[in-house]
Amino acid sequence: MALLLLFSITLPSCKPLFINKYDKEGNRKGLWKHYWDEEKHVQRKGRYKHGKEIKTWKYYNIDGALVKKEKYNKNRDSITITNYYPKRKIESTGKACLINENDSTLHFYWTGLWKFYDKNGNLNHTELYERGRKISTQKISK
Question: Would you tell me how many other CB atoms lie within 10 Å of the CB of residue 107?
Answer without folding.
Answer: 11
